[in-house]
Structures are given as structure tokens and as C-alpha cells.
Amino acid sequence: MMRLSVPLCGVAFFNEFPFSSSTLWPKTCTRTFSVTMSTSELRHVINLPAQVDQPVFIVGAPGLSDTHFRNAIESSLFKQWLKNIQTETGLLANGAMSLKQVLIQGVDMFGKRVGFLKFKADVIDKETGQKVPGIVFSRGPAVAVLILLDSEGETYAVLTEQVRVPVGRLLLELPAGMLDDDQGDFAGTAVREVEEETGIHLNVHDMVDLTAFLDASTGGRVFPSPGGCDEEISLFLYRGNVSKEKIEQLQGKETGLRDHGELIKVHVVPYSKLWRATADAKALTAVALYEMAKRDGLLSC
User: Fold this and answer.
1) Residue 81: CB atoms within 10 Å
2) Is the pLDDT of residue 69 over 70?
3) CB 108 within 8 A of CB 200
4) Whether 105 contacts 134, CB under 8 Å
5) Is residue 137 a contact partner of residue 247, using CB atoms and an 8 Å limit?
């Protein structure tokens, strides 16, 4: 077993386990940390500014490869989670809780980047000494678009029918997608996803960020399943005028990136029936935000 202590901003690693010093940790982790590695365990020890008196152990589950372990802790998903728990509204903000250990359990790569990350965080309530629920499925930020098309006095909403293996069903949803990187181009990603999933080309400048109407304390995102997933979604609105012929062309259109396993069919439904036509939380949330923003005079359309 070997052990090394170094300043966090000048990371040095063993030659057989080389990490990138420029991307490993968020700027909120500025103290020293140590790395311990043995033939039977993947393990790191870090010190967070939010709890300077208690180190955090990061370990790999049995069977996890060193490459996946390295990819996990270098990923923007994990770095963002570490940053989130140390913000003003984060878990560690008021000192009532502490982070003891993070167990990296699984990694799914999307090409060269981490797409999904599964880990378990041991967060302790200091008053009771008990753990709080800490299983995390990390997939990061995403976008969805409520597309409303006016045609001959009727307003229509554009949905996509997709195969959703986790729920074992076909679902009608808003066009949506994950951010491919950590650059935060939410509107641009929304436009690309709409074109890929529906064939409709939108202009970024015509998009209205519905989640931006939320109070600043929310972060301007919605969390569809915060009990187990870190996904945060920006919801956008597009409204335009089209011919009846265009509506007919969209209905039943098959789209998606077939080489990525996307088997998508476009559905167009009257907006007045949208709230009953889908079980998609993104769509129902977008409808609520849209209607409330109109009610409060924040939107005129």
C-alpha cells in the first residue's frame, strides 16, 4: 500500500494511476487530500472546506475497474455534486450534517464521457447520528421544450413517442435531452434536441425559458425525482404559426438518431387536451409553468 499527501490545486498521482490535475475537483475543494491505493481497494481521501475537521473517503465498489473509478471522480457529474453540497443551500452548509464516505458503484460511458454515474453517499445527521437516504443516480442537467403550434384557430402541442425501458412502456413526452458537456448551453441543446427528435428547426432567440420564472432560490431548474436522481431540467417554450399541412406532416413522423437507439415517433395533440394526454412530468410541469406565467402577466402569448 502507498500513501501520498499533496495540495489539492497541485495534484500528483502514482504513475500507474494518472489523474488530470486540471479537471479532478471543483474549485470549492481547495484543501489537501491524500490518495491510498492497494491491490484490493480503490480509495481516495479528500478534505472539503465545508467540513475541515472530517475527511471524506471515496472508494470503489468490488468489481469496479480502476479506469471507471478514475472516470467517475474526474467526471463533471461528480464534481458538480461535490460543489452542490457545499453551496449556501447545500447539505453541508449549516454544519448539521456531514459527509463520511462515497461509494462509487457503477459507471456508464457515453463514448469518452461519463453518461450515468451510480454512487452511495454516507451523509450523517449529527443530531441523531443516523444516515440520511444517500443513493444517487447521477445524470446531470437536461432540457425539454414545450412546442405550441397555432394553425387555423387551434393550438397544438408536439410530443414524441419513445421506448422507455426503465418503465417498460412507450411514453408520450416533450422533446428533451441531456447536456453533452458541462458548458451550460441549455438553449442550444434544446434547439438541437428538437431538431433531432421532431425535425423542426427552431431559432435559439425564439425560445422562452419557463424555468427562469421560478424564484432565484430554486436555481431556475426543476428536479423530477430528487429522492434518487440529481437530474435538473430547464424547460423551454416555443410558440409559432404553421399551416394545417405542416401539422399533418408532423403527425406520425418517425425520427431520432437510429444509430443511438432512438426510435421516435412524433405526435401532435390539441393543447387543450395535453394535460390529459401524457404522463410525462416534464410536459405537465411545463404546462403548469406556462399557465401560471400567463396568469401572472409574465407571458403574453
Assistant:
1) 20
2) yes
3) no
4) no
5) no
Contact present, 121 and 134 (Cβ < 8 Å): yes
Structure-block grid coordinates of residue 46: 479528500
Mean pLDDT rounded to a whole number for the chain: 86
Closest by Cα among 278, 289, 271, 165 to 233 = 289
Number of neighbouring beta carbons within 10 Å of residue 240: 15
Residue 165 neighbours by CB under 8 Å, 6+ apart? none
Do the Cβ atoms of 269 and 169 come closer than 8 Å?
A: no
Count CB-CB contacts under 10 A for residue 80.
Answer: 16
> How many other β-carbons are positioned within 10 Å of the β-carbon of residue 20?
10
pLDDT at 260: 58
Query: Per the structure block, which three cell numbers stand in for 143?
Result: 432540457
From the list 88, 101, 77, the residue with the least C-alpha distance to 231 is 77
Tell me which residue of 242, 227, 241, 108 sits closest to 178, measured CA to CA.
108
Cα separation, 82 vs 69, whole angstroms: 16
Written as nine digits, the cell of 219 is 436555481
Residues 145 and 176 sit within 8 Å (Cβ to Cβ): yes
The one-letter code for the residue type at 43 is: R
Q: Which DSSP symbol is given to 56?
A: E
Q: Which whole number is the average pLDDT over 86-92?
A: 92
pTM for the full predicted model: 0.84
What are the pLDDT digits (tens) for 249-268? Answer: 999 998 865 555 568 999 99
